[in-house]
Amino acid sequence: MGSIVLKKVSKVFGEAKVIPSIDLEINNGEFVVFVGPSGCGKSTLLRLIAGLEDVSSGQIMIDGKDGTNLAPAQRGLAMVFQSYALYPHMSVRKNIAFPLKMANMPQAEIDKKVADAARVLNLTDYLERKPRQLSGGQRQRVAIGRAIVRQPAAFLFDEPLSNLDAALRVNMRLEISELHQQLKTTMIYVTHDQVEAMTMADKIVVLNRGNIEQVGSPLELYRSPQNLFVAGFIGSPK
Ligand code: ADP
Ligand code: MG
Q1: ipTM for the complex?
Q2: Beta carbons of 44 and 200 less than 8 angstroms apart
Q3: What residues does the ABC transporter domain cover (predicted)?
Q4: Distance 231 CA to ligand 1 centre (A)
């Protein structure tokens, strides 16, 4: 569970070849960060994996099976949106339970899954509150909770912390890393922030104009950047 392989994946919007051709292997349980400047195609690549956009060509293998033409809900992946994507009129409990309700899961099972997710995310005491009665960090955790209850093969995060203040961002970064250690589920995390990439990733994918410049561990990228772009972006001394 949780491996994702891209084979010659491309994406064209009208005349614009946003992703010319990408090959990438993500192993089960890895924390992979897509990093690169604004507009380089990070969100597009994540949305292709999630199935929110169709590939123009190429293949996306999920757990060894061809997932290229599967609907988003059938891919077994959970996209974590920014905390403002919560339903403001619903309690934390109902926000987290929402995807399970939609799937017609029996209420007793829903209650158990919500309780389990709340425990992992330290939200047990906040289940009856509305999102506006929570801090930014707690809201972000509710958004993650809504993904956790579906027990996905992988979590996909698109700059989930970008609307939090700097101190909270550092805090949430640690929380997401801890969550990864607890769940050991594949996570793909998109950011334009080099520090986030260097501190969170098992594997960093450096993107530039829709192409992969380099894939490697934070240490590999720091010690042996393959080109000036990677060196400049990672802040390597070379
Ligand atoms: P990033 O997330 O790295 O900032 P994006 O993946 O959002 O970059 O965008 C990459 C490029 O694709 C940008 O030039 C953007 O304008 C373009 N793009 C993204 N989505 C669309 C779309 N739906 N239609 C046309 N162009 C798009
Ligand atoms: Mg983006």
Answers
A1: 0.98
A2: no
A3: 4-234
A4: 24
